[in-house]
């Protein structure tokens, strides 16, 4: 069984889904500290003027774990979020096809950021045809920090192989994984260059950008099929 592990980011970029598509099981790393001004409660969409953030306002203290971050009761945030997406992608070739599904995922009754992010992930998984089983790290009782936590999660879930992001080379103890009988491989993701509604091409947008522009072909594009890809490896 191939396992990959990732924090529950907000409607993430393409590299996340490339990694998830290689795994039998994706563990949602919800038992680590929330990171301010990162991608857990926001992401980028392509606009006619470049790009902008779509953001979920949250309530958190200094040491709040991702699983415990509450969504703020700020009025109209969903309306602002949706209006930004609508104005950016209403002319997308596949906007009408996926508009209602994304709206339903956003309109979940969740008051918790992680739950909302997972709802949006399930929307994207469905569109992309990703069938990896989803498990929450907080339900496994895994312990440790950094690479030790990753290894313990893999043990708890009885992984045969761990598929890591390329940055895992910097902190994973490969000998410890080998001693545990767990193979480790590293993602090599070259960002695809695909047609967007506006030029020039901007990489690292939310997956919504690809889905609304290319629909059913999105997973093939993520895998670099039929398109040019950027030369450098992306983290």
Walk me through the topology.
Elements: E1 2-6, H1 14-21, E2 25-28, E3 42-47, E4 50-55, E5 58-59, E6 70-71, H2 77-89, H3 95-106, H4 113-128, E7 133-136, H5 146-156, E8 161-164, H6 174-179, E9 183-186, E10 192-193, H7 207-214, H8 218-222, E11 228-229
Parallel strand pairs: 1-2, 1-8, 2-7, 8-9
Antiparallel strand pairs: 3-4, 5-6, 10-11
What does this structure look like?
By secondary structure, this protein is α/β, with parallel strands linked by helices. Helices cover 34% and strands 17% of the residues. The chain has eight helices and eleven strands. The protein has a five-stranded parallel beta sheet with strand order 7-2-1-8-9, sandwiched between helices. The chain has a two-stranded antiparallel sheet with strand order 3-4. Strand 8, helix 6 and strand 9 form a beta-alpha-beta unit. Helix 3 runs antiparallel to helix 4. The longest helix has 16 residues. It is globular, with a radius of gyration of 18 Å. The two termini are 23 Å apart.
